[in-house]
């Protein structure tokens, strides 16, 4: 069966510090991968998605970046965090080829607090 | 710009009653529709999906879709306290994932 893991689960970072969140999927090949952010009182906001290694699409201009160095690995990064980067970050995957119908499966989430 | 609208609630329902959650969407090209449940501090988990107009039933849950009205709903029969959560409506129309509503907070009162 397919599983998705992301880490760390919780982190507290000072403003201006770097960030790296990692996500891996097991049990499937060539998934579509996604990073979402859920800020307090707001809905799930799509940040990045990837349909293959090295292919990243950005939905929201910001100081975050994403990379996909391996088929089932997705990394979210920042060089300098802002207070507004605080939130609950969710990695998700879906089956390649089902772009119009496929559901998303979410990891456990990473809660980031920027102080 | 795709938009999905939900009443944020809270929606309070007595235990054993039917909970009715509603959602509207803006993009007529949307082809598939999803309901996720999210407990506080946890990630969303898929409850149901629906692609065609009409009703789809799965246990205590029924999803309803009306594409002409751009309206999706979720009914929860015999509501239990464990159903208390935020319910997210989502629509899909391409490779760029799902567009989510902000969710409806449901409270089942024992």
Keywords, please?
heterodimer, A: 115 residues, mainly beta, 7-stranded mixed β-sheet, 4-stranded antiparallel β-sheet, 11 strands, 0% helix, B: 110 residues, 6-stranded mixed β-sheet, 5-stranded antiparallel β-sheet, 55% strand
Descriptive notes:
- The complex is a heterodimer of chains A (115) and B (110).
- Chain A is globular.
- In chain A, 0% of the residues lie in helices and 57% in strands.
- In chain A, β4 (32-38) and β5 (44-52) form a beta hairpin.
- Chain A has strands spanning 3-7, 10-13, 19-26, 32-38, 44-52, 55-58, 64-70, 73-78, 87-94, 105-106, 110-114.
- Chain A is built from no helices and eleven strands.
- Chain A has 115 residues and is mostly beta strands.
- Chain A starts with a strand and ends with a strand.
- In chain A, strands 2, 4, 5, 6, 9, 10 and 11 form a seven-stranded mixed beta sheet that branches. In chain A, strands 1-3-8-7 form a four-stranded antiparallel beta sheet, with no helix packed on it.
- The model of chain A has no long low-confidence stretch (mean pLDDT 93).
- The relative contact order of chain A is 0.33.
- With 110 residues, chain B is mainly beta.
- Chain B has strands at residues 4-5, 11-14, 19-25, 32-38, 45-50, 54-58, 61-66, 71-76, 85-92, 98-100, 104-109.
- In chain B, strands 2, 4, 5, 9, 10 and 11 form a six-stranded mixed beta sheet that branches. In chain B, strands 1-3-8-7-6 form a five-stranded antiparallel beta sheet, with no helix packed on it.
- In chain B, β9 (85-92) and β10 (98-100) form a beta hairpin.
- The radius of gyration of chain B is 13 Å and the shape is globular.
- The N and C termini of chain B lie far apart (40 Å).
- The model of chain B has no long low-confidence stretch (mean pLDDT 94).
- The A-B interface holds A 32, 34, 36, 42-44, 46, 49, 51, 57, 59, 90, 92, 94, 99-109, 111 and B 4, 31-32, 34, 41-46, 49, 51, 88, 90, 92-103.
């Amino acid at each position: 069966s397919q599983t998705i893991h992301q880490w760390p689960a919780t982190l507290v970072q000072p403003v201006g510090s770097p960030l790296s969140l990692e996500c891996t999927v097991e049990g499937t090949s060539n998934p579509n991968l996604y990073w979402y952010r859920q800020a307090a009182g707001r809905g799930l906001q799509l940040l990045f998605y990837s349909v293959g290694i090295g292919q990243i699409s950005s939905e929201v201009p910001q100081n975050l970046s994403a990379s996909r160095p391996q088929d089932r690995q997705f990394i979210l990064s920042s060089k300098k965090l802002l207070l507004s980067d605080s939130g609950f970050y969710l990695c998700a995957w879906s089956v390649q080829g089902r772009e119009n119908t496929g559901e998303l499966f979410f990891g456990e989430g990473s809660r980031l607090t920027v102080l | 710009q795709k938009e999905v609208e939900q009443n944020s609630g809270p929606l309070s329902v007595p235990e054993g009653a039917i909970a009715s959650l509603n959602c509207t969407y803006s993009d007529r090209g949307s082809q598939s529709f999803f309901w996720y449940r999210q407990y506080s501090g946890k990630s969303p988990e898929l409850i149901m999906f629906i692609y065609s107009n009409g009703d789809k039933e799965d246990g205590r849950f029924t999803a309803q879709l009306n594409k002409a009205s751009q309206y999706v709903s979720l009914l929860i029969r015999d509501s239990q306290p464990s159903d208390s959560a935020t319910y997210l409506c989502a629509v899909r129309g391409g490779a760029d994932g799902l567009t989510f509503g902000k969710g409806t907070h449901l409270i089942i009162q024992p």
